[in-house]
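Q: I'm building a small set of examples for a reading group on sequence design. Run inverse folding on the following structure and report the sequence directly after it, with nothing in between.
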């Protein structure tokens, strides 16, 4: 479940155009929420992707 989420976020991150990291993170969160993932899992996955 989490590996699928991370893969989706990594792919989406390459296609997102954002002014700054805050906007990029917000767009990734909206995208993942729309796919049905939970906010807690999304936040953890985004933080791991940034490391």
């Amino acid at each position: 479940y989490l590996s699928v989420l991370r893969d989706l976020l990594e792919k989406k991150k390459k296609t997102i155009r954002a002014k700054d990291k805050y906007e990029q993170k917000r767009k990734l969160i909206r995208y993942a929420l729309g796919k049905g993932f939970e906010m807690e899992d999304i936040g953890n996955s985004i933080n791991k992707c940034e490391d």
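The mean pLDDT is 92.
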